[in-house]
Write a structure and sequence with these properties.
Layout lengths: L23 H41 L8 H5 L1 H19 L4 H6 L1 H28 L8 H26 L3 H15 L1 H16 L4 H25 L8 H4 L4
Helix pairs in contact: 1-3, 1-8, 3-5, 5-6, 6-7, 6-9, 7-9, 8-9
Length: 250
């Protein structure tokens, strides 16, 4: 904005910026936020890499007619649930990471809303297909009652979180929407953290038993949820009037 200078050459009251000067503090803050978002997105994509690679390998086995073994027989007997789970989880993990970019949300709100609707559908498919496989696939080797219960618990929690994330934004609660969607995404990304907890557990204590494997996998979900809750607590209050921007009815 040009400075308002009178004909006599006197500047108005208050400090003025030179004509070529830029609001450096605001620009620095925006740059810092953009840099933080970029690092977060990169970390989420890296965390997703291991389960996505395992999912791609599983799809290759199913499509290529790999040898049927006791470990994969259940997938060949009923391939649809695992295919739905892998495809929807891939979209959910990759597309969901970019929902953490503030510039995308504010510059292209239509993209944010469209991507959000797709993520709701994919997230529900991830959770429901995971629950179906837990309930109806024969248990894999090393899967006991504790891991069975944990899968049911966190699978159900993911579905509930996504449903609440959708309903809260429809009622104009942007902060609640972000919190519940973040919790659902944290649970959905549990497989990436579980690869790290299982690796760490084996390095420290050797091959895990049935019980310790369940505990290490549960720790992966809990770590993600703890980080999600920390992020939620740090969020600034959002006025309800912003709900229309995010697609709410308020």
């Amino acid at each position: 904005m040009n400075a308002n200078v009178s004909d006599e050459g006197c500047a108005p009251n208050g400090p003025q910026r030179n004509e070529g000067e830029k609001p450096t503090s605001r620009k620095t803050s925006a740059s810092a936020k953009a840099g933080s978002a970029a690092w977060l997105i990169a970390a989420l994509l890296v965390l997703s890499a291991i389960p996505l690679a395992a999912g791609a390998f599983r799809l290759t086995q199913l499509a290529g007619g790999a040898a049927i073994t006791p470990a994969n027989a259940r997938f060949f007997a009923a391939p649809l649930p695992v295919v739905v789970h892998i495809v929807s989880a891939s979209v959910y993990a990759l597309l969901g990471a970019f929902q953490f970019a503030p510039r995308l949300r504010w510059r292209w709100p239509g993209w944010h809303r469209a991507a959000g609707r797709l993520l709701v559908g994919c997230g529900l498919l991830v959770g429901l297909s995971g629950l179906w496989m837990t309930l109806f696939y024969p248990g894999a080797n090393g899967t006991g009652g504790l891991l069975y219960a944990l899968r049911l618990l966190f699978g159900s929690a993911m579905v509930v979180s996504i449903v609440l994330g959708f309903t809260t934004i429809r009622h104009g609660d942007v902060r609640g929407h972000r919190a519940w969607m973040l919790r659902g995404y944290a649970i959905g990304l549990g497989a990436g953290t579980q690869a790290l907890t299982l690796m760490a557990g084996e390095l420290i204590a050797g091959p895990p038993s049935e019980r310790s494997r369940a505990l290490l996998m549960g720790a992966g979900w809990m770590i993600n949820l703890a980080v999600a809750e920390w992020i939620i607590r740090k969020q600034r209050p959002i006025p309800r009037s912003s709900a229309s921007f995010f697609g709410g009815n308020a």
